[in-house]
Amino acid sequence: MMEAAFAGRSGPAALVAGLVTGWALLGGLVLLAVVAMNVASVIGGVAWKPFPGDFEMTQVGVAVAAFAFLPWCQITRANVSADIFTMGASPRWIARLRLVASAVALLFAALLVWRMSEGMADQRQYGYTTTILQFPVWLAFLPILVSLVLLVLASAVTLAEDARAARGPADG
Length: 172
Known about the structure:
Blueprint lengths: L1 H5 L5 H36 L6 H22 L15 H36 L11 H29 L6
Helix pairs in contact: 2-3, 2-5, 3-5, 4-5
């Protein structure tokens, strides 16, 4: 996992890769905690009574974990791609297409930071809470916003790398 994020990177790009990798690992720990909680709830439901609010905590935990993995997917280029369309393309054309993809990722990540921060503000202003645990919904937005800011940084790193690659030697 570490090798894919740091491959050929130094300076600020390596710092972003380190932050993104650490955040993804934390997301994995959140997901493991959700699984453990669900196992305990199932066992508890059989033995005595289910864990109250497990469904709400599962929703929040899985959302937080899923967003935590997005920056790592960007920095390691583990996003879904359709290589069948580029099999015959030259390395320079592939670099150009990757440049466009990184630019789109950066724009969408910035858009998501903006809209999710507005969503968090609305959730906080209206005082929305979960039904059983009365957990303030806006608190779940905090780690998601961290993930999205890291996604912006990861997209900026890949955009810079792809811009250098696209300016590489001419097609031969």
